[in-house]
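User: Hey, quick favor. My workstation is busy. Could you predict this chain's structure for me?
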Amino acid sequence: MKVGIASDHRGVKKKEKLIKYLKKHGYTIYDYGTNSEESVDYPDYAFLVGEKINSGEIDFGILICGTGIGMCIASNKVKGIRCAKVDNVEEAKFSRLHNNANVVALSNEMGLMRMKDILDVFLSTDFSAEERHIRRIAKIDNYGN
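Assistant: No problem, here it is.
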């Protein structure tokens, strides 16, 4: 599985630790930055990860910023992206199972172990593909088009 990860300046240190963890667990990781604690604009990184999913370069995305909220909002502006701002493993599970989320946004304020637990569940949970969930996702994807 190919996973892209990006953060703003606040999430750099956690991103680096998560990259090591995910590689150790067999994932192919693409680091899309930032790689410095100098202030950056998080939307640039959220858009990039979404574009890489749409191009087929990666299967899933992970975004980290101060709260996870900004990255989530920006990511969801990219057509075809369903980003979930996740705070616990249950949300991680259902973001995949019911919503077929392809990007997860995390708060840098979250503990590293909790982030790892969330990513383990997010990346290992398949979409249920139940008709009701397919129908609901289609409504979201087609809104405004």
